[in-house]
């Protein structure tokens, strides 16, 4: 036994600390099964939990508290506003089925990101909205998504939702978990009276629950080297250097199939085949955008004449120009470059994540 005693002592010094560390690790770490975690605050966690649990790819949602200075806080402490914590949710999701960028976009569409004093009927710092990032990638996506929302024009007021590093997340008391399921009548009454749904409907309309992103989803544009590796020389010249492809010698000028046209880099839905017409110019032409929020126009004086350039909002890519010589009902001609677009046939919409547009063709 004396021979093995030093070895036994050494093993104890290695194993015991490791066990203690494992036992005290916060619940914020990613799981070993490939699932990931996101943490958000959007006012009453009963509501944010119910909004996120209905998403495909979300495995579970836990209501809790984070961002403050009191360890293991109670609901009474947090609701008093004295702990610095906010009501928050921690979302466990499958990244093969849903992206973090989508979750961030989903948050925007289920809160009032312009409210610095709480959310809807719930007032106080403990109900403020926030994104708590777990790593640099989440920070980059959340920052880009917030910037896109600011530029979208959807909200007239400044976006005040904080983006903060996650520290410790404390699960709330058991009776708060799945409250909307356990106490359906009370929850529905509270939600109706809170004003949340009226605000969201007025702000987003029929885009509220759309699976395909309208302002994102939190797209981070690649750098020059990555773009050059992703795109053909012609695609790069058109989208990044505001070039023009040859007429009658491009992919979509004569395309008559049903489907939608999306930005070749960001994937933003831009135009529909239902608004495409034969303009005789040799370039794909449309009477209007499928998603106006994804289109940006600006004055172009490069060719000694004033034209209106069309760009994608999230991708910030040159698409073409819009002219006032199109057919009714708009009188506009969105003259686009095929090299800036990718066509998604109607039969592929569902599998490529654009399922919300299937009904557009029914």
TrEMBL record:
Residues 224-346 form the MsrB domain. The active site is at residues 44, 335. Coiled coil: none annotated. Keywords: Multifunctional enzyme, Oxidoreductase. One of its GO terms (molecular function) is peptide-methionine (S)-S-oxide reductase activity. It catalyses: L-methionyl-[protein] + [thioredoxin]-disulfide + H2O = L-methionyl-(S)-S-oxide-[protein] + [thioredoxin]-dithiol; L-methionyl-[protein] + [thioredoxin]-disulfide + H2O = L-methionyl-(R)-S-oxide-[protein] + [thioredoxin]-dithiol; [thioredoxin]-disulfide + L-methionine + H2O = L-methionine (S)-S-oxide + [thioredoxin]-dithiol. InterPro entries: Met_Sox_Rdtase_MsrA_dom (IPR002569), Met_Sox_Rdtase_MsrA_sf (IPR036509), Met_Sox_Rdtase_MsrB_dom (IPR002579), Mss4-like_sf (IPR011057). Pfam families: PMSR, SelR. Its EC number is 1.8.4.11, 1.8.4.12. Has an important function as a repair enzyme for proteins that have been inactivated by oxidation. Catalyzes the reversible oxidation-reduction of methionine sulfoxide in proteins to methionine. HAMAP family: MsrA, MsrB. NCBIfam families: msrA (TIGR00401), peptide-methionine (R)-S-oxide reductase MsrB (TIGR00357). Belongs to the MsrB Met sulfoxide reductase family. Belongs to the MsrA Met sulfoxide reductase family. This is Multifunctional fusion protein.
């Amino acid at each position: 036994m004396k021979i093995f005693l030093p070895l036994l002592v050494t093993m104890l010094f290695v194993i015991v600390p490791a066990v203690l560390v494992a036992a005290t690790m916060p619940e914020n770490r990613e799981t070993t099964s490939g699932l990931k975690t996101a943490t958000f605050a959007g006012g009453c966690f009963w509501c944010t939990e119910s909004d996120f649990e209905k998403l495909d790819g979300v495995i579970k949602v836990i209501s809790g508290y984070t961002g403050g200075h009191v360890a293991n806080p109670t609901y009474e402490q947090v609701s008093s506003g004295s702990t610095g914590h906010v009501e928050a949710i921690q979302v466990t999701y499958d990244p093969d089925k849903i992206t973090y960028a989508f979750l961030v976009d989903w948050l925007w569409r289920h809160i009032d990101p312009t409210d610095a004093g709480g959310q809807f009927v719930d007032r106080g710092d403990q109900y403020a909205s926030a994104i708590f990032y777990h790593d640099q990638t989440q920070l980059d996506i959340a920052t880009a998504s917030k910037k896109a929302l600011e530029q979208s024009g959807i909200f007239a007021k400044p976006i005040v939702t904080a983006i903060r590093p996650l520290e410790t997340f404390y699960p709330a008391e058991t009776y708060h978990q799945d409250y909307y399921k356990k106490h359906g009548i009370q929850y529905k009454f509270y939600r109706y009276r809170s004003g949340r749904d009226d605000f969201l409907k007025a702000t987003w309309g029929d885009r509220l629950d759309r699976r395909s992103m309208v302002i994102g989803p939190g797209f981070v544009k690649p750098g020059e080297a990555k773009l050059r590796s992703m795109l053909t020389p012609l695609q790069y010249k058109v989208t990044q250097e505001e070039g023009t492809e040859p007429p009658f010698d491009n992919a979509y000028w004569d395309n008559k199939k049903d489907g939608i046209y999306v930005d070749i880099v960001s994937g933003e839905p831009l135009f529909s085949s239902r608004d495409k017409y034969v303009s005789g110019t040799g370039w794909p032409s449309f009477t209007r955008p499928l998603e106006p929020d994804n289109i940006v126009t600006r004055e172009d004086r490069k060719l000694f004449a004033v034209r209106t350039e069309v760009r994608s909002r999230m991708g910030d890519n040159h698409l073409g120009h819009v002219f006032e010589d199109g057919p009714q009902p708009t009188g506009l001609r969105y003259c686009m470059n095929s090299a800036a677009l990718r066509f998604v046939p109607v039969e592929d919409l569902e599998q490529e994540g654009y399922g919300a547009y299937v009904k557009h063709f029914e």
